[in-house]
Amino acid sequence: MKVLAICGSLRATSSNTAIIRAAARLAPAGMEVVEFERLAALPHFSQDLDVEPLPEPVRDLRARIADAGALFISSPEYAHGMPGSLKNALDWLVSAVEAMDKLVLLISASPGGAAHAHAQLAEVLRTMNLRLVDGGAHVFTRARLDAQGDVADPEMRATIARALAELAVAAANPHPDDR
User: Fold this and answer.
1) Helices 84-93, 56-67: inter-axial angle, 10-degree rounding
2) How far apart are CA 171 and CA 110, in angstroms?
3) Can you give the pTM of this predicted structure?
């Protein structure tokens, strides 16, 4: 199963990007985690632009979501909310059938805590009819990274691996109550 990973941060050295890289290495057999790296290329959402022909970055996002069996979002918290660039991407998906009813693994990590953004993201994703795996239970205060920028915390790596395993189980056994 292909999982499209979206990082809510645009920073090159983001700990949430490191979490996505770790997820790609920790994915169970049969799962491929692929990062969407064009978040910054998406134009500001406007219903006036949400018509054919769609802007190319939006077409790409929607096509990659259609091709994925599930989504994985890892996001920091900015000012008690999700980053604007991530909200913009989600706005482009509100009327898109490609994202509807997709499974989503949600992880949030931010140095000052990420509980507010995580709750906000979970609410938006549920409103968009996406299905959160494990109720979106993964919030980290800090992602400790090593000198190479990789997740250094064994407990965090284990949590990521368990969450991906839960995603694989949910994908193999779809049930309407797994939200």
Assistant:
1) 70
2) 28
3) 0.93
